[in-house]
Amino acid sequence: MGVTNSNKAADTAAICCGDSFKVTLALTAAPDIVTNPTDIVLVLDRSGSLSGPPFADMKAGTAGTVIYCIGLIGSDGLDIAVLNNWATDPDASHVAVTPDAAELEDLFAELAANISKPGATDVLILETLDADFELGEVEPPDKGSVIVTGPRSLRWSIDSLGTTKSESAALRFAVRHTGDATGSLHVNESIEYSDAEGNLVRFPDPEVYVDCGSDVYPEPCPEPRELILPSCTDSAEFDLGEFFVSPTGRIVELELSLCSVCPHRRIALAVQLYDGEEGGFSSLKTFELPAHCGPGCRDLRIRGIRFAVPDGACQCSRRALRARVLANYMDTDFNCADE
């Protein structure tokens, strides 16, 4: 039957910037299906299809067989736990999930191409991570050997798999985020498979949502004046208009981090700057911070909060200032589409 299933899955759907997660690379192979008539392939095309008769009666008589589950995600989603419960262990190499009918068709095409192969020998898998990730700890595989060939790449080789009976192999390794992009990122840059029998094998390309926080500038910078320099000129003069000298003093610019801000909730932020002396300087600014729409809580970096601090006749004097920050949620569930 050749290679019957291949899988690559991350153990989490979302991480914070710089965090690590585990990835499982799995493979199952079996001899020619003619010599293994007890191998079964089940297709679950919508959630719950395996939970009632006639499947309940059929499962009772499948002791000793090898069961592969292929799930097609429908409009109502898919209950992966049902597939894992039905499939032969380990789940990673006996369960495949396809997002649409086209992917399901490709998977069946691979099974059809591999069905008469006597397992797989001289298996070689070359894994390269996307540029936003690096390899962490690589665990010894349960079959074959693995060599780390670079910060983002490894080589997994297996002498033989599934040549006399159905067999599975799995490799687990840690992946660390090293980039600065926020959003859904592909874990793979590439993954290549080859064996002596010419099995056709595709590994999924899992995505992980990486949350690197957000920068918020509640105060806009002064609008620049646009200057257009004519072509073929050696010099140009511009009148920038009228400006007024600010009162004597200094500009104090503050920034801060708001930690673990929940999504879909705007924030009322108040920042007070004062010197603590009776009758001394005091200034309060309030802002409405927009809601973020990520899948989980994230840190917000607030930048560019500016105060003009009067200094009297001399700017050389030393000033001791204090800052106070208050922040509260404004909503329970703000609709980001309203922004």
Question: What key phrases describe this protein's structure?
Answer:
elongated, four-stranded antiparallel β-sheet, 339 residues, single chain, mainly beta
Give an overview of the whole structure:
With 339 residues, the chain is mostly beta strands. It has four helices and 20 strands. Strands 1-3-11-8 form a four-stranded antiparallel β-sheet. It is elongated, with a radius of gyration of 30 Å. The model has no long low-confidence stretch (mean pLDDT 80).
Summarize the amount of helix as a percent range. Answer: under 10%
What order do the helices and strands follow? Answer: EEEEHEHHEHEEEEEEEEEEEEEE
Which regions contain 5 or more consecutive residues with pLDDT less than 50?
A: none
Shape: elongated
Secondary structure layout:
Blueprint: E1 2-10, E2 14-16, E3 20-30, E4 39-44, H1 55-60, E5 66-72, H2 80-86, H3 91-94, E6 95-98, H4 101-114, E7 120-129, E8 133-138, E9 145-150, E10 153-161, E11 167-177, E12 183-186, E13 188-194, E14 207-211, E15 214-216, E16 249-261, E17 267-274, E18 282-289, E19 298-310, E20 322-329
Parallel strand pairs: 2-14, 4-5, 5-6, 15-19
Antiparallel strand pairs: 1-3, 3-11, 7-10, 7-13, 8-11, 9-10, 12-14, 16-19, 17-18, 17-20
Question: What's this, in brief?
Answer:
This protein has 339 residues and is mostly beta strands.
